[in-house]
Amino acid sequence: GDVYSGQQTNISINTEVVIKIARSSAEAIALKHKYWILQHLSGIHGIPKALWLGQESEYHVIVLKCLGPSLEDHFKACGQMFSLNTVMLIAVQLLSHLQNIHSSHYIHHDIKPANILTHLKDSLNMLYLADFGITKQYCHPNTHIHIPFNVEIPLTDTLVFASLNSHMGRELSQHDTVPAPSMGTASPSFISKLTIGLNPLTAS
């Protein structure tokens, strides 16, 4: 869909927003899914704020509070390498955000630098997770029973950052979205890329 910038205005304050427009039925379904997920995760630290979902003429529209550049943008601006202190700052925040999402019975499903946004002030001291298009519930909120284990599931994550289980077509759990090489079955490529400046899955 199309993405525009805008402002939400009222008497006391103007808020910068992002306006996403869906032109097809498939895009409209994806917008509704993102909004539904963001509403369920509303109030969790590091989750973008969804301000409105609706329809204008034949288009479906979602309005989100505007955030800053992505971690990928910062990474490129720093010569494709972060200091160890910066990586630690990023990792601690992400682990906290993911723990909160998992406690709400969801897995993000697509953790990568492009889906991690900074505050509008362009600071790495406050990170937000973005793009909940393939986020899913991994266990029942009341019974806490995990979704059934399945195999031969098509890969939907970003290839180079997907966990081993995702590459093998297995149903994922919360362990598969932790972006650290020593935790669960998550791919080590995320943190490796930030620390050594390359992606081990694509390096020659």
TrEMBL record:
EC number per UniProt: 2.7.11.1
PROSITE patterns associated with the record: PROTEIN_KINASE_DOM, PROTEIN_KINASE_ST
SUPFAM superfamilies linked to this entry: Protein kinase-like (PK-like)
InterPro entries documented for this protein: CK1_Ser-Thr_kinase (IPR050235), Kinase-like_dom_sf (IPR011009), Prot_kinase_dom (IPR000719), Ser/Thr_kinase_AS (IPR008271)
Domain Protein kinase stretches: 1-204
GO terms, molecular function: ATP binding; protein serine/threonine kinase activity
Classification via PANTHER family: CASEIN KINASE-RELATED
Protein name per the record: non-specific serine/threonine protein kinase
Organism in which the protein naturally occurs: Scleroderma citrinum Foug A
Taxon lineage: Eukaryota, Fungi, Dikarya, Basidiomycota, Agaricomycotina
